[in-house]
Amino acid sequence: MLFGCSEGTSPNVPAAQIPELPAHMPPVPFPADNPYSAEKAELGRHLFYDVRLSSEGTISCASCHRQEVAFSDAPNQVSKGVHGARGQRNSPMIVNAAYNPYQFWDGRAATLEEQAMGAFMNSIEMAADTMAVAALLRGPDYRERWQQVFHDTTVTMPLAMKAIATFVRTLVSANSPYDRYLRGEVDAMTPVQIAGMRLFFSERTKCASCHNGPNLTNNLFQNVGLFSHYFDTGRYRVTGDHTDEAMFKTPTLRNVELSPPYMAGGDSEDGELMTLESVVEHYDKGGKPFGNKDRRVVPLRLSKDEKASLVEFMKALTDRSVLTNPRFAKP
Ligand code: HEC
Ligand code: HEC
Q: pTM for the complete prediction?
């Protein structure tokens, strides 16, 4: 009861719960109306992995966000939901999603609670039957755990989503070779990775003008010229503003090595982007002509070694402890 029960505050995850948040990572923000508790995160973990939450009893959050690939659905371009239905977008890694000011490639959900409800109700993701789920949560498998967390037997879907969102907020990654390097372990990255890091943060490539901060994202919407015609209109779907057409959220690059294919649609006009090399190649060419393409995406004329060093730097963002952390695993 030390943490998180007072109204109106935004308690941070206690250090004991998260594998050492290094000083360069901000504390994990928890909303005032859904403060952290260890019991709630644990309830959320059970729900995250429970296929009985979907209408067919086959799909859980973890079907499309698998721990062994940093909670993405690599190497699938799009994911299969209930009845084998497929969505249009690539499943993002949801590690460090707690830091996102909004969720999804187009930013349509403001909070992780809203996001979880979206996936849970979505007809091609889980298509939840809320009556059946409420019965499950009132039943012997969940009754005690639920009461411990909410001090009440009343089961509602928004409360269940609060528990899931709490678990998702604990999925923090900050122990990659790059993090260790930032903490002063100069040998944590290879010389090639260090050269790649300098290039990544340089004016020449401008990668870090969009991929910056502790999560290597500016959390803004941009277009990087993957197509000259977009079927998926991205942020425009949310705002209806043509200046947002085919704009997508800059994704985090943490653990990016583990989550091919790349980009919102998992592809480009030239085909699937299955490797980091192909992504660097895309940026080096400067992308396709498109009205909303960001001005920073222009031909870079990098040498072979420079391209390889950028790829190696991105591999230094892989935090393997996330893949094996028992607190993140299937209960
Ligand atoms: C059928 C596959 C599928 C299932 C099941 C699923 N997701 Fe997702 N998830 C996706 C896809 C695809 C996206 C990206 C969609 C978009 O941007 O429009 C996504 C996006 C997200 C995001 C946003 C991450 C970001 O960086 O914007 C979070 C968080 C998330 N899912 C958590 C969950 C949780 C929690 C559940 C269970 C309640 C869940 N997902 C169930 C496929 C799935
Ligand atoms: C103008 C802002 C901007 C610049 C500059 C930029 N990026 Fe990106 N990056 C984005 C956006 C936005 C996306 C998602 C685009 C999409 O899905 O259509 C992205 C996607 C990516 C991805 C795929 C991540 C995933 O999970 O799918 C990688 C890898 C990447 N960028 C690396 C780089 C590198 C390396 C550079 C420099 C050579 C760079 N970016 C420069 C904004 C930018």
A: 0.93
